[in-house]
Amino acid sequence: MYKELLDKLYKYHELSYLEYLELIKNRDEVRDYASLLASKTCMKYYGNKIYIRGLIEFTNYCKNNCYYCGIRASNKVAERYRLSKEEIIECANIGYDLGFRTFVLQGGEDSYFTDDILVSIIKEIKALHSDCAITLSIGERSKESYKRLKEAGCDRYLLRHETIDKNHYELLHPKNMSYFNRMECIKNLKELGYQLGVGFMVGSPNQTIEMLAEEMVFLKQLNPAMVGIGPFIPHKDTPFKDKNSGNAELTTFLLSLIRLTLPGVLLPATTALATIDKEGREKGILAGANVLMPNLSPLGVRKKYLLYDNKVCMGEEAASCIRCLKKRLSKIDREIVTDRGDYALMNRVLERE
Ligand code: 5AD
Ligand code: FES
Question: Which residue from 57, 226, 252, 314 has the least number of CB within 10 angstroms?
Answer without folding.
Answer: 314
